Amino acid sequence: MENCSCMKRSGFLMASASLAAFAPSRASADVVPGGTHAVERRADFDEASFSAAVGKAADVRQLWESVAFHPAILNNVKNALNGLQFGFGYPAERIAMVFAGHGSSSALTYSDYVWRKYAIGRAFKLSDANGSALASNVFLQPATAPDAATDADDPLSQYQDTSIVALQRRGVVFLTCHTAVEEQARTLVTGGFASAGTSATDVAADILTHLIPGAIVVPAMVAAIAVLQARYGYSYISIAFA
């Protein structure tokens, strides 16, 4: 492997701290990210947080679209980060990467509270390697500490951790599609996964106020992808799985 200096611990922690800065601002606990309309209005879109996260100074920008639920794509995101940093030599802080999940992949940005309350695994047929319905967002928590081994070749290093939190620490921005949440909320209600008498609007608001830390709500992912390419210069990649 070509010699390349690893990201300094201070820079790594700075990237981790930036998650809080990029989290959507909320005036109060009653504010629903993206609002309560089925179609998000501009007045409800936290564009400032979106722009701050995706528009940071960078030498290379890449966005990953994921519609079908294939968490293995997180390994590809990790590989892209490692290839850009260690192979091509881009400074870690000059890489901008966005994960644009919608459809069933939206569940990757749902907290365990949402997964458990609405039986997300059963509702959308999201299974583990053994075919059992997933009961929680097992892809969220990191397997490594922020100051884990810094040898990129070490399988136990922070650079081989494919968890969402580990990728966020490295600067990956995770977006949540408001439209997908609204559509899935209707499915949860009609499928009997929400309490009797609960409206789809209430379910959507519950999900949107219980996303994983750092997730940013966009009006529609297919629209956000166009903006990321046209306005911010992101290259686009989508991986098809058999």
Structural commentary:
It is a single chain. This protein has 242 residues and is of the alpha/beta class. It has one domain: Hypothetical Protein Ychn, Chain: A (3-Layer(aba) Sandwich). Helix content is 35%, strand content 11%. It has nine helices and five strands; from the N terminus they run ααβαβαααβααβαβ. The protein has a five-stranded parallel β-sheet, sandwiched between helices. Helix 3 links the parallel strand 1 and strand 2. Helix 7 crosses helix 8. The longest helix has 15 residues. The two termini are 30 Å apart. The N terminus is likely disordered.
Keywords:
9 helices, Hypothetical Protein Ychn, Chain: A, 242 residues, 5-stranded parallel β-sheet, alpha/beta, 35% helix, 5 strands
In short:
The protein is of the alpha/beta class. Helix content is 35%, strand content 11%.
Broad structural category: alpha/beta
Would you tell me the overall average pLDDT? 89
Task: Based on the coordinates given, report the CATH architecture.
Answer: 3-Layer(aba) Sandwich
Order of helices and strands: HHEHEHHHEHHEHE
Assess the beta-strand content as a share of residues.
5-15%
First and last CA, distance: 30 Å
| CATH topology heading | Hypothetical Protein Ychn, Chain: A
Number of domains: 1
- In total, how many beta strands? 5
Secondary structure layout plus pairing:
Elements: H1 9-22, H2 47-54, E1 60-66, H3 73-87, E2 95-101, H4 112-117, H5 120-123, H6 164-169, E3 172-177, H7 178-190, H8 200-208, E4 216-218, H9 221-230, E5 235-238
Parallel strand pairs: 1-2, 1-5, 2-3, 3-4
